[in-house]
Amino acid sequence: MLQIQAPNNETRVLLHSCCAPCSSAIIECMLENGIRPTVFYCNPNIYPQEEYEIRKNEAIRFVTSKNLDFIDVDYDYAYWLHTMKGLENEPERGGRCLKCFTLRLTETARYAAEHGFSVFTTTLASSRWKSLEQINDAGRHASALYPGTIFWEQNWRKGGLQDRRNQLLKEYDFYNQQYCGCEFSMRRLEQEKK
Fold first, then answer.
1. Strand-strand pairing, 119-122 and 12-16
2. pLDDT tens by residue, 110-146
3. Nearest CA-CA partner of 71 in 143, 16, 125
4. Alpha-carbon span 37 to 34, nearest angstrom
5. How many CB atoms lie within 10 A of CB 158?
6. Distance CA 81, CA 165 (A)
7. What span, in angstroms and rounded, lies between the C-alpha atoms of 194 and 191?
8. Are 23 and 163 spatial neighbours (Cβ–Cβ below 8 Å)?
9. Residue 174: pLDDT above 90?
10. Is the peptide bond prior to 44 cis by the omega test (within 30 degrees of 0)?
């Protein structure tokens, strides 16, 4: 198991989670290293709402199997869509993704500051489809807005976590989505299939 240490040796971390498959190996790794994550599910980007509910329920299923706390943020797709206005045609890893990460991680930092978490991180940093630089920029920006919080810049792709993720995907028979979640990535996937 990957050896990790949270900033300031924190043993409580607020973990922004995008989905069960991406979260599972990270949660397991944290627990193995004496870190207790509270899972923060803030994903207003996921479209349609049925997709959001499937992903959320899979995340709840895994988190509760580990006896951890799960924070469910209200689903507000209309707000997300309004915030992304003008960025609809951006490519993956473009300006829309950065803005989306910033929105979600700012909400995570706000919750952390209001509920006594000094450290927060995100499972978004486990996806090879996402820009680690954008994720870290968004996390640092969010942390700067809430003094007393630290964004833990951890590359969750390393140390065998990707292989363990794939094992847990099979063990738990997780629903495994084929697009990041937003309607624009879904449309792009549909176009590629054609």
1. parallel
2. 999 999 999 999 999 998 889 999 999 999 999 999 9
3. 16
4. 10
5. 10
6. 30
7. 5
8. no
9. yes
10. no
Sequence-separated (6 or more) residues with CB below 8 Å from residue 12:
35, 36, 38, 117, 119
At 53, which amino acid appears?
Answer: E
Rounded (5°) CA angle 68-158-182: 65
Secondary structure string (H, E, C) spanning 99-128: HHHHHHHHHHHHHHHHCCCCEEEEHHHHCC
pLDDT, one tens digit per residue, over 22-34 is 999 999 999 999 9
Name every residue whose Cβ is closer than 8 Å to that of residue 83 and which is 6 or more positions away in sequence.
99, 103
Q: Could you tell me what percentage of the chain is helix, strand and coil, using 3-state DSSP and rounding each to the nearest 5?
A: 50, 10, 40
3-state secondary structure (DSSP) of residue 155 = coil
In the chain, the percentage of residues whose pLDDT exceeds 70 is: 99
Tokens 């697009």 correspond to 179
pLDDT band at 17 (very low <50, low <70, confident <90, very high): very high
Q: Rounded to whole angstroms, how far apart are CA atoms 162 and 73?
A: 27
Distance from C-alpha of 177 to C-alpha of 194, rounded to nearest angstrom: 18
Tokens of 89: 């045609």
pLDDT of residue 194: 73
Estimate the crossing angle of helix 49-65 against helix 20-32, to 10 degrees: 20
SS3 172: coil
